[in-house]
Amino acid sequence: MHRIVRKEMVAPNTAMFHVEAPWIARKAKPGQFIIVRLDEMGERIPLSLSGWDPVAGTLRLIVQAVGYTTMKMVALNEGDFILDVAGPLGAHTHLPPEGTLVVIGGGYGAGAVLPNAHEAKSGGRRVLGIIGARTKELVLMEQEMRAICDETFITTDDGSYGITGVVTDALKIILDREKVGAILAVGPVPMMRAVSDMTKPMAIPTLVSLNAIMVDGTGMCGGCRVVVGGETKFACFDGPDFDGHVVDYDLLVRRQKMYKPQEAQALEHACKIDQQVRALR
């Protein structure tokens, strides 16, 4: 059992948790993730690490309520427990060692890029950050990104904050003025694909974190199969970070949609149970 020692709502339907998991906190590396199971009947879901404290023995997680299990998790509070936390899983991100690093986080991805940004900055590297969101109220981890990066750009789709547009609009500003050594993009697949399409003609090394469907997180179940450079890879074991220029994004999108009907049924079932419980009170 893993106790939630701190919870903060950082945007509508999005919570930041600090969860006790001392063994994982001592071993975690940038780019790695965990798999959680909230209770005995719960599904296993992967969550990126936004940070960790090896002294306090805690992990920091950014969770957006988009499905049945993430909705249940966002409803938890300080003092509540998570049944299982497995990790650290996945490979330590291996970024090209030289040159300016640009980290790009779209939505929840803003939390996931912070460990790599921190590691690069600690190594004396110039780091630029880009955070993308639909509106101002959905911008995540801005203060921490500004504290780590030499310069931070914010973009919002509706122009309510920062640059009006998407993360590639901010990336174009950077690429027009200076040479970049590497890019790390984490967020929705269309965003990562757009970043990769922009940087490929310039041959700028670009890593993306593939949010494929996962079950066990060790490569055994095969649920997270992706195709990268024409080869089948397992996002949980070989990744989750891959060369964005050679990812088969069409296949990734199709596989992400495989269980949409089941997810919709689960949400409908949960709503009915909630209504029945409320009626009994």
Written overview of the protein:
The chain is of the alpha/beta class and 281 residues long. It is built from nine helices and 17 strands. The chain has helices at residues 22-27, 68-74, 109-112, 114-122, 142-148, 167-177, 189-199, 249-256, 260-280; strands at 2-11, 14-20, 33-37, 44-48, 51-53, 58-64, 81-82, 84-89, 101-106, 127-133, 151-156, 163-164, 182-186, 206-209, 225-228, 231-234, 241-243. The strands form four sheets. A seven-stranded mixed sheet has the order 12-11-10-9-13-14-17, with helices on both faces. It has a five-stranded antiparallel sheet with strand order 5-6-2-1-7. Strands 4-3-8 form a three-stranded antiparallel sheet. The two termini are 29 Å apart.
